[in-house]
């Protein structure tokens, strides 16, 4: 069954072209359009998107920095984690770093990030973190303990968890 899902398909051809386009795109409106459609494509591709893990996570890392794209980026990340976790759990450290950086940025009092869709962006990040909590509770508990003792993140952890 899994081997059947892992055969190269037209989705892979599209994914290769799409990821190349996404990584090189500089116009913010086009970047926002790319990432807004990405969750739907990941659902359609399903488990087969696992072969693109490295490039997909690179896209998440790049797109998570721009506030206009964050909400859709984290929705896509949530979909990706849900669809591929049994094969991508090794990427946990990179995923958690992306999420915590974005959450910290959004919780910063002096941040310009508290503009349009602020609550939706925070909610998308928290949904990803909650999904990781379900899928990797031991790792998340360890990180949670470490964050509670860190003066920088203590406030953020209390605020959202």
* N-to-C CA distance: 38 Å
Structural class: mainly alpha
Order of helices and strands: HHHHHHHHH
* Coarse morphology: globular
Number of strands: 0
Helix content: over 70%
Number of helices: 9
Task: Explain how this protein is built.
The protein has 9 helices and no strands. The chain is mostly helical and 161 residues long. It has one domain (22-159). Helix 5 (67-88) runs parallel beside helix 7 (118-135) and helix 7 (118-135) crosses helix 8 (137-149). The longest helix has 22 residues, at 67-88. It is globular, with a radius of gyration of 16 Å. The mean pLDDT is 86.
What descriptive keywords fit this protein?
single chain; 161 residues; mainly alpha
Question: Secondary-structure map with pairings?
Answer:
Elements: H1 2-5, H2 10-24, H3 28-45, H4 53-63, H5 67-88, H6 92-107, H7 118-135, H8 137-149, H9 151-160
Helix pairs in contact: 2-3, 3-5, 4-5, 5-6, 5-7, 6-7, 7-8, 8-9
Summarize the structure.
The chain is mainly alpha-helical and 161 residues long. Helix content is 79%, strand content 0%. The protein has one domain (22-159).
């Amino acid at each position: 069954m899994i081997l059947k899902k892992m055969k190269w398909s037209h989705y892979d051809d599209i994914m290769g072209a799409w990821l190349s386009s996404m990584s090189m795109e500089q116009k913010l409106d086009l970047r926002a359009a790319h990432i807004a459609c990405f969750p739907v494509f990941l659902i359609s591709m399903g488990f087969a998107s696992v072969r693109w893990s490295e490039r997909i996570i690179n896209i998440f890392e790049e797109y998570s920095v721009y506030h206009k794209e964050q909400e859709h980026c984290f929705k896509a990340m949530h979909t990706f984690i849900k669809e591929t976790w049994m094969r991508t759990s090794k990427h946990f450290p990179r995923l958690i770093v992306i999420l915590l950086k974005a959450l910290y940025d959004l919780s910063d009092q002096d941040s310009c990030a508290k503009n349009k869709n602020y609550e939706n962006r925070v909610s998308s990040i928290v949904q990803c973190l909650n999904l990781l909590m379900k899928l990797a509770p031991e790792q998340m508990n360890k990180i949670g303990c470490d964050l509670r003792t860190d003066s920088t993140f203590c406030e953020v952890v209390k605020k959202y968890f």
